[in-house]
Structures are given as C-alpha cells and as structure tokens.
Amino acid sequence: MTAHTDLPLLPNFFAGRWQTGTGRGQTLLDPVTGEALVRVDNTGLDLAEGFTFAREQGGAALRALNYGQRAALLGAIVKVLQANRDAYYDIATRNAGTVTKDSAVDIDGGIFTLGYYAKQGEALGEASVLLDGERIRMGKDPVFQTQHVLQPTRGVALFINAFNFPSWGLWEKAAPALLSGVPVIVKPATATAWLTQRMVEDVVKAGVLPAGALSVVCGSSAGLMDQLQPFDVVSFTGSAETARIIRSHPAVAQRSVRCNIEADSLNSALLDPAASEGGEAFNLLVSEVVREMTVKSGQKCTAIRRIFVPRALYGAVAQAIGAKLAKTTVGNPRHEGVRMGALVSREQYDSVIAGIQHLKTEAEVLVDGSAVALVDADPAVAACVAPTLLGTQDPVGAKVLHEVEVFGPVATLMPYDSEAQAYELIRRGEGSLVASVYSEDPAFIARAAAELADSHGRVHAISPDVAASQTGHGNVMPMSLHGGPGRAGGGEELGGLRALGFYHRRSAVQASSAALDVLCAPRAAFGVTP
Ligand code: NAP
Question: Where does the Aldehyde dehydrogenase domain lie (predicted)?
C-alpha cells in the first residue's frame, strides 16, 4: 500500500490519549473503485508507555468493579455502537466492499455478541471471584480444604486481528476480556482497520469505559509482541504463517504469555450416504454451500471449503449448486442488483486467483467464476471474484485440495465411497473450525458428530426439523465454542462463559473453611476451563 500524504491519518488511541503516527503511513483503499480513503500509522508511539498505561490504569479500574458492573459497561458499549451503525455500514461499503447483508454479519454480529456477554455478565451479579468446582477435603481434617478460584489476570490482552471481521473480530474478544476485568489493546489488520478504529473512537469519545480499558493501534505490528509480559495474553486471528511467528516469539516461547490462535481452516460439509437427489438433506446441503460460498465473498474462516457427497450424487450436487450460483450477481455493492461484493483488497484478489490455479492442479472446474461479468465494477480495478466451484473424482489421491485454503468464494466438491472414508477425508484437513452434516437420520448425525468432534471445534448438523431455525454453518454464535484443533490454530473462543477462562488465572487456595468463606463471598460458581 502506497502512502497518499494528503489523506486523513487515523489517530491511534494509546496511553489514554489520541496519538497520530509521525510516518507517512499506509493507505486504505476502496476495493471496488480503488479510491484512496484514509491512512493509518503508528510510527513514534511509545509502546512501553501504552502497554504500561493499559496494564496499570485500565486493569486496576476494571478489577475494582464486579462482574455485574463490568457487564453494564458492555451494555453501554452496545448503545454507543447502535447509535453509530449508519457510519459503520458506510465504512464497510467503502473499505471492505461488502453488500449490506455481509456488512451486517460483521457489524451487527459484533454488537449482538457484546449484548450476549452483557446479559451473561449481569447474571454473575456482584461476584468478585469465580469458583471452579466445589471445595475438596485435603485429608482427615475436614476443616482444611482446597478451593479452585479464577482471578482475572493482572495484564493486558493484545488482539492481533484478521482483515475479514474488523467489527466482530474486535468485540467477540473484547466482550469476554472486559467482562473478565482485563484491558484490551487491539491491532486491526491494516487493509480494513478503519472500522475498528472508528468503533473504538466512538466508544472512547462516549466516555463509557475507564481510562486504559480499550486502546487501538493501527498500522505496523512491529514491536507489539515485544511488549508482552508474563501476565499478559495475546489473541491472534489470521494466517497459519503469521501464527507460526506469534507462537515462536520469545514472549510466548520464553515468558509464557498465554496465547490463543485462530488460524485458517479447510472446513467440510458432509451429505448423508443415504441422501437422495432432490431430497431434503440434499437440498439443505446445496443451499448451505451456496450461502457459505457467497456470504462475505467466502472470506470467512468458517466457510465451507470441501464438500463431501456420496459418489452417486456428485454430478447432481454439482448441477444443483451451479444452478443456484448462477443467480449470484457480483460487483459494486452500491448497486441494488448486486448480491456479492468484493474481496477486501486487490492483494487478496491476486491471492485468490493464484489459489484457484493451485487447486486446479488437482481439480476440474465445475462452475467457472472467471466467466462471470461484473456489475458496475471495472474488472481491472475491482477486487471482485465470482464464485468458483471445483471438483475432483479422486479425493483420496488429492493432496493440495486438503491443504490449501483459498480465502474467497471457492469450494471443492468431492465424492466418497463409504462413510468411514468420508470421515478419513475430512480429517485430512488436520483440524478445522467447523464441519456440517446434512441428514434426515438422527442416528447418522449422532455417529458423524462422535466421529468429527475431536477434530473440529464445532459440528453443525442440519436436518429438516431444524432447517428454519438453524443458525448457519459459518455463523459463529457466542453461546457455542469457536476455534479448532491442529491446523485451525488450537484455540478456543466464545462458548458462553467458557470464554472468560482465557482471561483468568486458576489457583488452588488451600485454607481453613473459615478463610475460604471470607474469600468466596460474594462469589459466582460455574465451571470455567481455560
Ligand atoms: P495475516 O496476514 O496473518 O494477518 C493477521 C494479522 O496479523 C494482521 O493484523 C496483520 O497485520 C498481523 N501481522 C502480520 N504479520 C505480523 C507479524 N510478523 N507479527 C505480528 N502480527 C503480524 O492474516 P489475514 O490475511 O489478515 O487473515 C486471513 C486469514 O485469517 C485466513 O487464513 C483466515 O482463515 C484466518 N482467519 C481465521 C479466523 C478464525 O477465527 N479462525 C477468523 C478470521 C480469519 P497487517 O494487516 O498490518 O499485516
């Protein structure tokens, strides 16, 4: 990204004050028109000062409140964000190139998640300590007992976020962190940093949070990880490549900074072997695959990348998906006829086009996105890619198709010959965020869930009885776990109050019953497992 020095430079909110970088900065662009919008930069910021300020001022102020009071802060943030929604939709259209319904996934999804944690926190009321389990006798003397307690860590939570969810990616992490009493410093991905910066600006200007509770640093990530100390935590969302750098940083490798990683994922959809062409399970899979390929132009870490169907249905599924995709108009999100907007940048466009070429070394093209004309957008400028469905008759012999995540409107159809083979092929993703199962048979769903749960953070089963109420393969709901083992990063987020575990330290207090009575009142008891 080149710098356009005449453009506004977004200020960072750091060390309790607005600070503008002293460098030329990086320019954020409209991915549809190529228009230069704003610049971001953090050159010259005193990183040590900002981290200390958040840790000491923000942390102390948040910990002085109980869970119910911190929940009220989340409720106040919700009100601020709701009052400014129009501005957020405008920024999303300009900087992310999304159609309104895709902007909603990010903006309203973030606000909904905050509201959910405000309610959950309210239920914890005046508690100032969380109990993990019951008291346990330590020996013959019943008076001497152990009680596991959870206390908010006295550090700062650093979020290094991905470009695809500048709103939700902030709030799904900040809600449990702030509720726990841990101050937040967010570093949004540069390409779409504007929305994150603007939301933080609105919250700061509304004065609803104590000083130091929420900071935003835009631009380069250089030096941020170096600031982390043993009681801090870092939550990273992004590519597997950057995840490797974060994991091997001395803060994590030597200072034991707790680290949560949400990385890329080759999520699967599985059709019941007993499904029939045009049957309910068949139709449910086809609709969900089309939705997943097109929502946010496929730029969702949870999007379906691999579709597994009984071999006899390969051709019929390809045709049904193709027929629905043909109705997807792609182009300028400001045009009312457009259903799918752009990728976030021309860099991502190049990456997706190169990714499709890579997948094509092992797959045939079933639906050709490159043949689709854009609506109201210049193909030489706009980062628009139409949906592309690939397929292979030989998923067992394929390698790249199980390894390469193309972060766009791209999925690969694969036939399987037996149920056991389908599970084996799905596991070749080496750990994913979500697998969805399509069936009319509860016994098959239960079997598939048992087979897939250990390698997936979430198993989403769609049957005709839940067709209208199901929340979507790719939609991350705050009450359900988000994350996945292995290649997906090994992280865990959300899952209701489980999310608070990451921001708390567990300790076993061994003491007399009388002392434990004092320590634990008022308290809230629930099982939180970091
Ligand atoms: P990325 O290139 O890895 O960047 C992610 C973040 O890391 C950005 O804020 C980036 O800053 C920062 N960064 C880059 N290099 C860094 C370094 N050396 N040290 C510290 N931070 C560094 O990923 P992306 O391209 O933005 O995101 C796409 C990927 O994210 C996809 O693979 C997708 O699957 C994954 N994702 C996963 C989830 C999930 O929940 N599992 C959710 C969303 C996305 P700059 O932008 O300034 O370079």
Answer: 21-464
